[in-house]
Design goal:
Order of helices and strands: HHHHHHHHHH
Structural class: mainly alpha
Oligomer: single chain
Strand content: under 5%
Radius of gyration: 26 Å
Shape: elongated
Number of strands: 0
Largest sheet: none
Number of helices: 10
C-alpha cells in the first residue's frame, strides 16, 4: 500500500517537474536551511496529494452521477417510473446538469398524465419548476422548451405551450417530436389545417 502511494506521489511529482512548477519553486527554497527546506517539501507533498485526491473525487462524482443517470434511463424505458425518479435524483445530487434535471422533469410529467386531481396538478407544477430551471441555465437546448410546452399543454395553458413549442422548433428545426407535439396542440384547438401544414414540414 505504502509503495503504491509512493509510486503515485513520484508520478505526480514528475508531472509537476515537467510542468516547470518545481523549477519555479527551486530558487525560492534553495537557500533555506535544511529543516525549513524539509518542512517546505513536506508541505508541497501534502499539496500534491490534496490536488490528486480532489481530482480523483471529482472524477468519481461524475462517474457515479452518470451511472445513476443511465440506470434511471433504463428504468424509465422499462416503465418503472418510481425507481427511475430515485435514480435521477441521485444523479442530480452528484452532478446537477440540465440533462439529468430534464429527465426528472419528464418523470414528473409522465406520472402526472396518468393521474387526476390535486396529485396530478402537484406533479405538473413540480415538472414545470424543473423545466423553468433548466431553460434558465440552458436556454439553447430545444428539448427543454419541448418539455415546458408539453407540461403547459397538460395544464391547459395553450398560449404558453404554443410559445414553447415554437421556441423548440426555432432552436432545432430537425427534431420531428417538436412538430408533432405542436401539431397535437393545434388539433386540440381545432386548427387542423395548420397542424397539417406543420406535419408536412417534417
Amino acid at each position: 500500500k505504502n509503495q503504491d502511494l509512493d509510486d503515485i506521489l513520484a508520478i505526480i511529482k514528475q508531472l509537476f517537474a515537467e510542468s516547470g512548477i518545481l523549477k519555479i519553486l527551486h530558487p525560492a527554497i534553495s537557500g533555506v536551511q535544511n529543516d525549513k527546506k524539509n518542512l517546505i517539501i513536506k508541505s508541497l507533498n501534502f499539496f500534491v496529494v490534496l490536488i490528486f485526491l480532489l481530482l480523483v473525487s471529482s472524477g468519481l462524482i461524475l462517474l457515479y452521477g452518470n451511472y445513476f443517470y443511465e440506470k434511471g434511463i433504463n428504468l424509465k424505458n422499462n416503465g418503472n417510473l418510481a425507481e427511475a425518479e430515485i435514480a435521477f435524483k441521485k444523479s442530480i445530487f452528484l452532478n446537477s446538469n440540465s440533462d439529468y434535471l430534464r429527465e426528472l422533469g419528464i418523470i414528473s410529467y409522465s406520472r402526472a398524465i396518468n393521474m387526476a386531481g390535486a396529485e396530478r396538478e402537484a406533479l405538473l407544477n413540480q415538472a414545470l419548476k424543473i423545466s423553468q430551471k433548466i431553460i434558465k441555465y440552458d436556454s439553447y437546448n430545444s428539448l427543454n422548451y419541448e418539455l415546458a410546452g408539453r407540461i403547459y399543454l397538460a395544464q391547459g395553458n395553450l398560449s404558453e405551450a404554443e410559445k414553447n413549442f415554437q421556441d423548440a422548433i426555432r432552436l432545432n428545426k430537425f427534431n420531428p417530436s417538436h412538430y408533432i407535439n405542436f401539431a397535437i396542440l393545434l388539433i386540440n384547438e381545432g386548427r387542423k389545417e395548420e397542424a397539417k401544414d406543420l406535419i408536412n414540414k417534417i
